[in-house]
Task: structure prediction
Amino acid sequence: MRKLQTLAAAVVVVTLLAGCGGGAATPAASGESSSAPGRGSGDTLVIYTNSNGEGRGEWLTAKAAEAGFTIEVVGVGGADATNKLIAEKNNPIADVAFGLNNMYFAQIKAEGAIERYEPAWAADVDTALGDSGSDKAYWPLVKQAILLGYNSDKITKDAAPKDWTDLWTKDEFKGRYERVTGLGTATAQLVFAGILSRYKDSSGDLGISDEGWKQVEQYFQNGSPAVAKTDLFARIASGEVDMGQMPSSIISEREKSFKVNVETVAPSVGVPLAVEQVALVKGTDKKEEAQKFIDWFGSADVQGAWAQQFNSMPVNKGAAAKAKPEVVEFFAGLKQQDIDWDFVQKNMGAWVEKIELEYMT
Result:
């Protein structure tokens, strides 16, 4: 288990939940040095993302404007954004999509809703973290760990769960963790990918053993349902629950905002690691402008500023050098769960349907 609270040091609150920043260099100069992309064009780029929360959408809109872009950020959950992009592929509304992980973008690419584009910063990232195809259509931006966090003011390290499965198999945790009421977000789906992958069985239902599905059933039966429009950290602060799922980058500022302290669990099998990507939407009538935006957004300057502002771990080598030392240290010591993402991608849609119909009551 590793403490993320130290990430809140020397930052200031910019939104209620988790937006935080401090000393981030403006990326405007980067944009202006590239022939002032977007400046004076009058075109508004529509950006689909599941990474607009905690002030990200507002920050990006403002910084993009400084660089000469006019953008409209449309925030939607990862699974929902995937479905939306696919549904609109013959008449696209978005020009750029970012924040979705490999699993989602692989689906979108297979449906022909994004197209090949090699950003100006392509040589500065590990291409193995992005599109595995020769016609690369999506490119990596940020690493995100999907974690189980708990109230460390109430639960000691020794008494804390050691793995997700402890939540529903040990009496002291039953009813004390928040369980999801929908599977439209990337975080929720990645949690289940991490659980179900442990029970892979070629003869089982949808490739999962009976024991695996029993784990899912117990997860829902013994958890406290999430409350609409109520943040998990607010529930932890009020004592309603003690733990739940959370992506790594939100923790430090939500601790500060809700005045709670959270530790995270490091299962022996590791944790699911999501790599957020960016892609050009196929069929956009603002293709050149969209390409320039991708070049700007994924650059070392902008990703470095984003990392400072939102405690993220960029994959751009130049940006990684600008990330907070605490974030770099956390990811350096993080054990990634070995997940067969091809298997997950092929089955996630059916898993979600089964879970929603049979277990999510």
In short: The radius of gyration is 20 Å. The chain has two domains: 16-144+274-332, 145-272+338-358. The chain has 14 helices and 14 strands. Residues 16-144+274-332 form a domain with the D-Maltodextrin-Binding Protein; domain 2 fold (CATH 3.40.190.10).
